[in-house]
Amino acid sequence: MVNGKRGEIEAQLDGSSFRLCLTLGALAELEHSFGEADMVALTKRFECGRLSAQDAIKIIGAGLRGGGLEISDAEVSQMQAEDGAVGFVSIVSRLIGATFGSNDDDGVVDASLEKR
Question: Could you tell me the CA-to-CA distances from 106 to 20, 21, 35, 110 in Å, in that order?
Answer without folding.
Answer: 22, 21, 36, 11
